[in-house]
Amino acid sequence: MNVSAWSIRNPIPAVLLFFLLTLAGLMAFKAMKIQQFMDIDLPTVTVTASLPGAAPAQLETEVARKIENSIATLQGIKHIYTKVQDGTATVTVEFRLEKPTQEAVDDVRDAVSRVRADLPGDLTDPVVSRMNLSGSPILTYTVSSSRMDDEALSWFVDNTVTKTMLAAKGVGAVSRVGGVTREIRIELDPARMLALYASPADVSRQLRQIQQEASGGKADVGGAEQSVRTIATVQSASELAAMDILLSDGRRVRLDHLATVSDTVGEQRTAALLNGKPVVGFEITRSRGAGEVEVAEAVRRKLEELKAAYPHIVVTEAFNFVDPVIENYEGSMKLLLEGAALAVLVVWLFLRDGRATFVSAAALPLSAIPTFAVMYLMGFTLNVVTLLSMSLVVGILVDDAIV
Fold first, then answer.
1. β-pairing verdict for 277-286 and 272-274
2. Backbone dihedral angles phi then psi of residue 296, each to the nearest 5 degrees
3. 352-372, pLDDT tens digit by residue?
4. Residues 50, 342: contact at Cβ < 8 Å?
5. How far apart are CA 287 and CA 40, in angstroms?
């Protein structure tokens, strides 16, 4: 069957078909997500093992090398990279592209489980995770308030802001930058400890038993079954300071007789600066499959709701990696349209035939626009690679139209 000859003899079905395809392409183009790069699923797995206080040499011989030897027996491995720091060993396993990612994660997790008994007992359970290329922050904001200090502001970000931002569509993670963390500090007095023949182990052992809630079974109360809980918690630092410490010789002494108990903040190991001034900020990371533009719009709507609920809060945008994505998208679309227009102009200058020029001009949108419908159905997004590909095929479309 000659499709071209049949379409010439019966133009109405062909015209309606391309009309429907163009309409579907326009609808798909409007629904497609805009990203900087597409989501790539690479079969790369990371194993993170922590042993607080261990030196890099100890981690290398007792942890990293054993994990490497167990993982090296797996099939499809391309490279194994190991990074050892104070207290942490990170093993990155890169598989060949044909290896399914979930299968790679399961294989590595099984390999780590096989040598878990040979690793040090104080080692925390190794964390096996897949590499996520969409895990870099796209937006960073700072928060300030005239009514809150750094501790209250940090808790506001950890609790209120994080919950609000995670409710936005496409937000994968919210992490605080800078700020402080509340800490109950107990500073033992060596002189008093020596005078009372007390040891830090006595204090540590009994402090470990507080701040616990456990199930106490069930009880019948008023003919109804009720759950019973055993609660051993303190409500304030002063209540903790009044706690009795049982010494090894049977005597009891208050905690504040042995140490200074203070409700303060932990040691600050990270800092965030905006224009040279310390601030408390938070970073927004998109989830896999979401577009940067739609995530930014959803975050800004949530921020407006947050500002309306807390008028004393001032939110300032510190970094924005979404605007470059929009600029690249608009620039690519502009170049695509300019390329199509120049291609049609070149055809008219060389052929000097209005009908041939019209055929070439009509072939470009009728071929390019329905492509977006196919891209949408296949899960593609509007990113640097797809838009560059569309720009490159414009010349091929013109050649085909001329032929």
1. antiparallel
2. -65, -40
3. 878 878 877 787 788 888 888
4. no
5. 13
Q: Which of 170-174, 184-188, 207-211, 277-281 has the least mean pLDDT?
A: 207-211
Q: Tokens 């000859």: give the residue.
A: 5
Reduce the DSSP state of residue 305 to 3 states and report it. helix
Distance CA 298, CA 32 (A): 16
Which 8-state DSSP code applies to residue 115? T
Please give the average per-residue pLDDT across 265-275, as a whole number. Answer: 78
Whether the CB-CB separation of 161 and 306 falls below 8 Å is answered with yes
Q: pLDDT digit string (tens) for 230-247?
A: 777 777 778 778 887 877
DSSP class of residue 124?
P
Predicted confidence (pLDDT) per residue in 300-331, tens digit: 899 888 888 888 888 888 888 888 888 888 88
Tell me how far apart the alpha carbons of residues 365 and 369 are, in angstroms, rounded to a whole number.
Answer: 5
**For residue 117, what is the DSSP state?**
G
Token duo for residue 334 = 């502009």
Q: Give the C-alpha separation, 282 to 316, whole Å.
A: 11
The phi, psi pair for 384, rounded to 5°, reads -60, -40
Residue type at 48 in one-letter notation? T
Q: Work out the angle between the directed axes of helices 323-351 and 384-402 (0-180°, nearest 10).
A: 10
Per the document, the length of the chain is 403
Nearest 5°: the CA angle 375, 377, 378 is 65
Query: What is the distance between the alpha carbons of residues 364 and 369, in angstroms, rounded to a whole number?
Result: 8
**What is d(CA 57, CA 101) in angstroms, rounded to the nearest whole number?**
31
Q: What percent of the chain has pLDDT over 90?
A: 9
Per-residue pLDDT of 243-269, as tens digits, reads: 878 777 777 888 888 888 888 877 777
Q: What is the DSSP letter of 197?
A: T
CB proximity list for 375: less than 8 A, separation 6 or greater: 28, 32, 386
